[in-house]
Structures are given as C-alpha cells and as structure tokens.
Amino acid sequence: MCGQVEDWARNQGYRELIGMDEAGRGPLAGPVVAAAVALPDPCPIDGIDDSKKLSEARREALFDVIKAQALGFAVCVVGLEEIDELNILHASMMGMARAHRDLVAEHPELAHALALVDGNRRAPLFSAVEQRPVVKGDARSLNIAAASILAKVTRDRVMVAHDARWPAYGFARHKGYPTAAHRAALREHGPCPIHRRSFRLLPEDDA
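The structure assignment produced for this chain is given below.
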C-alpha cells in the first residue's frame, strides 16, 4: 500500500523523508532519469502511486502538482556516455545520488532527512546521510512514488523529443523499450546515436 513506509517512518520518529527513484533502466535507447522528492506530512496530494500503475494523463497531471507542493525536488538526467561507461545500474544509482545532492543543495534544511531508495541497494550518498533501500518502494512509499512520477514523465518527454529527430524508430510510442516494433526498426535501420552501445540491441541470432 502506498504510504505504508511513511507510516513506519512516522512511528520511528522520522519527521522528514526524501524518496528517490529512476526511470529508464530497461530501454535500449535514451537516458536514465532519476528524481528525489520530499513531500510534506501529511501529504496534501491525492492519487500518488507507482508511476507504472498510472495512466500517462494522470502522471502528467500529478507532475506539476508534485513540483508545486513538495518541500523540495530535483531531477537528474544521466546520458548515454555515462550509461555505457559505468553500466546502467551504476548510472542509475549515481543519478539518484545527484538528484539527492541537488535537492539538499537547494533545501539545506532537508540535509538530515531519511533517504528512501527504491530497490534493494544503497545509493552512493554522503556517509552522513541515513538511507534505507525499499524493495518495491514506488508501491509502498508516497515519497518514492512521487519521485517515480517526476522521473518517468521527464524521461518520456525526452524520448518524445528524440522521436522528432529520429522518427524511424518510434521512440514516442515505446520510449526506447525493446518492443517488437523497436527491434524491427533496429534490424532495418541499425542503431542511431541515442542507442546504448553497452546493451545487446538485438538477440544473438539477429546480431
């Protein structure tokens, strides 16, 4: 249930939380986008949930509301060079750490907030930052879910912009994920400049 982590944190005496999540680990093309969000408690925003469970229209509507009502937020776009150099997992974790850093730089009063990291790994934050990985956090924490919405909407907008430049691949439809249509476009046209060279773009029998 979204919000159960906040209930736990409140019972443990934590007053301020920062949720962190990313979007775009699975696609074959485009950046990975990370976000960090600190919501007020109680949260005044209705309908926050895991971004994957929400319609595109609902995510877009919540995007501006979250930014307007959050105590603080930051979004970090990690590009292809770092994805291919670091690998996608490390690039994702680095993106979350940068988003956290940028949020705290803008709102130093949140420096001691408990950081909630979606997944089962700790982010490379400063050692003084208390953090907790939360498996399926985007479905259990309002702060992580809010971060997932900011990350997902931002990344989708980036991929729609890329679609205008490389229309043959259909990025506006699949956002770079390995759909059958995307694989077919790769077979016909080969990779474009935003495809991740460290990924296997086609199955071995097609490569």
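Interim note for the steering committee: The domain at 4-189 is CATH 3.30.420.10 (Nucleotidyltransferase; domain 5). The chain is about 45% helix and 15% strand.
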